[in-house]
Structure formats: C-alpha cells, structure tokens
Amino acid sequence: MDPRLSQLLELQETLSEQREIENEYQLIPQRQDEINAILNGIEQQIEAARAKILECETEQKTRELDLQSNQDKRLKKEAQVLTIKNKKEYDASMSEIDTLDKKNQRIEARLMELMEEIEKNKKIIEEKESELEAKRNQYSGELDHLAKRADEMGAALNGAKSVSDGVIQKVNPNLYQRFARVFSMRGGLAVAPANSGHCGGCNIKLTPRLMQLVKRGQDIVQCESCHRFLYWENETLAEDDDIL
Ligand SMILES: [Zn+2]
Predict the structure, then answer these.
(1) Cα(28) to centroid of ligand 1, in Å?
(2) From ligand 1's centre to the CA of 172, what distance in Å?
(3) Is 204 helix (H, G, I), strand (E, B) or coil?
C-alpha cells in the first residue's frame, strides 16, 4: 500500500477515536444542564412563592394601617354623634360612620384573602423545598459522576488530539486538506477498501481503469462518486472473500 494511504488510514483511525470521545464528552454538559434546569425550575417556584408572600405582607401592612385609621375615625365620629343636637348633622355623621363600616368590612375581607394567599404560598414553599431536597439527593450522585467523567473525558480528548496532531504532522498538508474535507463530509469514513470492484464507502462500481490504479497502489486514488480514498486490501483476505 502507498505509505501515504497507510498514513491516511492511521489518521482516520485516530480521528475516529477522537470523534467518539468528543461525542461522549459533548453529552456531559447537556445532561448537567438538564439536571440543573430541573433543580432551578423548583428553586424558581420557591422564589415565586416567597415573592408572593412578601407582596401580600406589604399589602397586609398597608390595609391594617387603613383599617386602624378608619376605626380611629369611627370612634371620633361616635363620640361626636353623642354631642350633636341637630338631626341633619346627626344623619350626616351616621352616614359617615356607615361608610367607614362598609370600608372596613371590605378591608377585613381583603385581609382574609391575603392571609389565605400567604398560607397557600407557605404550603407551596414547604412542598417545593422537600421536593428540591429529594431531587438534589436523587441527582447528587449523577452530578458528581458527570463532573468526574468530564475531567476524565477532557484529559482523554487532549490525549487523542495530540495523537491525531502527531499523525497529521506526517501527512502532506495538501493531501491532509483533501482528506479532512472527505472525512467531515462522509461521516468519518474517508479511506475505504475497493477489493470487490466496488467503492467500500458508497458501493458504486468502480471503472476498470480506477481498479487498476488502486491495485497498483502507487497513486492516491479517490472514488469518482464519493471522493473517498481507495486502497487494495490484503490479497489473501480478498481471496478468502471470493471463496465465501
Ligand atoms: Zn465511493
């Protein structure tokens, strides 16, 4: 076999290994993101419930102050009423008291709603916090494993890259460019056998002239259809194939 082709075969092998590591390595942050999204989702629900409670408590304080001030006004009015002699003034004051009572009833109803809303959200927080703890426990082992795996894969990837780089150094730069194009276009299979008279990559029937060149093994020969680099495999293997 042309030594340039053996180099390409070696390169195909090391790059495939590198690619396999890269593919697995890429899955790690994806899974980490998935898990973190689940945990963050629950945390956000807790935060939303906390914010709701805070909002209710703020309104509660304002409403309680209003209620207090209305009650004070009412007490004053009641005291005034006792001193009024004139019917018209008396009726006016009674009507003001009535208005204050109605306002206070509305405020009290709202305060009840706020209390219920606060209770409801306290319950949500309680539930979500225990759910969060359960999920954290459930995923902590996996997250530890993923972090460890990411370190290992990172080191493995660096190792594989330096092996590939070493092989690339040996290959003619022009040939490497051509190889790299086919490698990326053809899913990592850039060098293929041609023993059966067909391209081992795309399976097209090769012309007799092309087959002759492949068998001679002195030129770089590419499939006319898929552009893969073609080589002639070990004779005995080919003969065995014929028998089968
Ligand atoms: Zn082909």
Answers:
(1) 35
(2) 22
(3) coil
Both 221 and 119 in one domain: the answer is no
Indicate if 188 and 93 belong to the same structural domain: no
The range of the structural domain enclosing residue 229 comes to: 174-243
Among 169, 206, 172, 181, which residue's Cα sits nearest to residue 230?
A: 206
Asked if 157 and 188 sit in the same domain, the reply is: no
Report how many domains make up the chain: 2
Single out the residue of 119, 97, 107, 120 nearest to residue 61, CA to CA: 107
* pLDDT one-digit tens code per residue, 41-95: 999 999 999 999 999 999 999 999 999 999 999 999 999 999 988 999 999 999 9
Convert 136-159 to b/e letters by CB count within 10 Å (16 or more is b).
eeebeeeeeebeebeeebeebeee
Distance 205 CA to ligand 1 centre (A): 9
Q: Does residue 31 fall inside a structural domain?
A: yes
Q: Is the model's pLDDT at 243 over the cut of 70?
A: no
Q: What is the pTM of this model?
A: 0.68
Cα 7 to ligand 1 centroid, rounded to whole Å: 19
